[in-house]
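Dear support,

I submitted the protein below through the web form. The confirmation email said the job was done, but the results page showed an empty box. After a refresh the structure appeared. I'm attaching both so you can tell me whether what I see now is the final result or a partial one.
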Amino acid sequence: MNWAAPLLVLPGVGLLIMSTSARYIRLHDELHDVAEHGEMMRNLGFLLRRARLFRNALVTAYISVMLLVSSGLVLGASAALESGSASADIVGNIFAFVGVAVLLASSGFLVVEATLSFDVLEADAKRLMDAGSDASDGE
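What the results page shows now:
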């Protein structure tokens, strides 16, 4: 494997981390809003579960970065020293493979969070529609 190959993934991982961090900050603000105003307490469990999923996604994304950079360093050092060491290549490739696998896990956490987030929105929309139909029935 070319030593730079694992490093080529890093800009995409960086964008994933930035967008996940922004969504995590928004969720953090929403949790504080619930705590301050005491409204939507029924969603508190969902918010905490989503926060855990975001934390797990961020941690695994950071671990992925660490492994991909380590892979690039090991493979780059092996290439620079022109040692062509099979063991260095194996270690570098393992770091790259595990880094991509951990990135897949991070994406999985985000898929679960997005699904949970939609479920909460759908439940709230259903409650609003039911409340609206109950109000119009009483008129």
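Response: this is the final, complete result; the empty box was a page-load delay. The radius of gyration is 22 Å.
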